[in-house]
Prior knowledge:
By secondary structure, the chain is an alpha+beta fold. It has helices at 7-39, 55-84, 189-198, 211-217, 259-267, 290-302, and strands at 91-98, 101-106, 111-112, 115-118, 123-129, 134-138, 143-147, 153-157, 163-169, 181-187, 243-248, 251-256, 273-274. The longest helix is centred in the first third of the chain and has 33 residues, at 7-39. Copper (II) ion (CU) binds next to loops.
Amino acid sequence: MMSFQNSAQTVDSIFLFIVAISVALLAGIVITMIYFVIRYSRERNPEPENIEGNVWLEITWIVIPLILVLAMFFYGWRGFRFMRTVPPNALLVKAVASMWQWNFEYENNRTTEILVVPSGRPVKLIISSRDVLHSLFIPAFRIKEDAVPGIQTYLWFLPDRIGEYDLFCSEYCGEGHSSMITKVKVISAEDFLKWYQEGTIKPAGKAEKDGPGLLQKKGCLACHSLDNSKKMGPTFKGLFGSTVTVIIAGKEHELAADDEYLRRSVMEPQAEIVKGYPPVMPPQKDNLTPEELSEIIEYIKELK
Length: 304
Ligand SMILES: [Cu+2]
């Protein structure tokens, strides 16, 4: 009887089981076929014979494959149940997908771009999407689940080996799809506790202003840089007060990047597309409160 410890071992053992049965069937069929080709060739068997049937042979080739496929189903189903049943002591982390980055939110409100988890404790990811379909894939743990706008999906896994593993989006979600790659960092339970406590945020109302943190949390930095480096969208550095060339209804216009311009380009990004960039930014109405928008704009103004 197979027993399951974690998702990788579950998937691998069932996969191996199915491959082993497939190899046995393949070998059985090919060996029989070769035997028949030689044994019943025209030279050895010049007169064809009419065979009426063989009850035991027919029962055998029904019953044996039936047992094999039912065994594959049985283990597959048990493995599926194991992987969909979250242990009660799991650490809860929200995984939020957006074009084009992952954000992980912990119960103490700490938000990160890398998924940091303690070794030895099951982790439940509650997956959602801010815009389009994405899919969260961690090959090392053999787990994958779609991020679907409007609903929550989930996954769980047991990180039992310290190290860093790839995590990426495996559902094509537009221009920046390939940059939706990050890491799962598995650290010891003590290190995790320290890390987790560092991120405990003071009670609401006393929130400190943190421009880069907010830009990061809201997903802006997936496409906009703060240091002039090239990304999917224009950099924020030196943007305020500059002159930008935008395309409005197919025609080029020169605009001053003032307060109003920044507000418009966040709330209705499709109205004026900066020349040389793809028209891919979604409107941020539901993503930002008016206070957050003001905070972001104040911060961009400082980026000379
Ligand atoms: Cu994606």
